[in-house]
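User: Fold this, then the next.

Assistant: Folding the first:
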Amino acid sequence: MRYPLLAATLAALLAAPAAAQIHGALSDARVLPLNGRMGGVYLQVDEESTTLQGQLRQSFHPNLDFGFQGGLSRITSGTTRTSVRLGGDFRGQLATQAADFPFTLSLGGAIGMESADDRTVLAIGPQVVLSRALGGAERWIAYTGAALLFSRYDAGAGLEVDTSFPIRLGIEYVPNPDVRILLEGQVGVSDEIRKEPALTLGILLPF
């Protein structure tokens, strides 16, 4: 096997204690080409909130790109309030789908914050995304991802620390090189802060 280190890294992440992009993978595992750029707009919903956020990604180095995210979330649990989301991440592409390896694999890390009147959540951790193009035309790309997040939750009455393991499953539809449409689901494992499954619909615009 040409990628023993990749397999070992992936296995270690998936076998880590239950505990990215903080709010989702938000794209498949393909890293942008050098000097490539991409914008994204996402609508994310769960049982307690609705969020509209954007993302800007750019690559300054081969096989490495960076993303910056920001948005507003309307939280409806208890008192209705608005929170602000900010985040950043990087990804390095470790493998590309080919005849001798059936997946594209990226590994990186993310940091993010969500703040409202009565709470602030800061999370950081590594993330991995694995994707596979379906069919020769690569119109459909399925992906899965996971992150190991260490979160600090300040609710005013006290400070909590949480370790979680969000799992992401998604698919992208690529009607043409200038537009990508994404549908992604996220479930938090052992997550006391983000307990509800989330569903994200996004439009990605390379430019």
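Now the next one, as you asked:
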Amino acid sequence: MERVYPDPWIPKTFQVWVVKATGSERFTDRGTGEIRRRKVDCWDIKGKADGVQWQKRFYKAGLAQTWKDRVDRDFAAGLAFDMRTKQFLVPQAPEGPTAP
């Protein structure tokens, strides 16, 4: 079943925070060739946009912090939030000839 996301909107309230978590990844043991799992650190970006909760996972702390800073800045700029991509949409300039 496919998820249905709302159309992008300009949220009135927006919160975002970074949480360190532990996930697992699959790897092949070189000695036995067996597929195993190991624990890895990851950073979850959690947030709320008008009360709707969302989450996005990163495996590098720097990427998570940079992404958090960007969405904070985009919310302050009043951009529309897209729940599908969990980021703000930068308006595109219309195509075609421009007025002088």
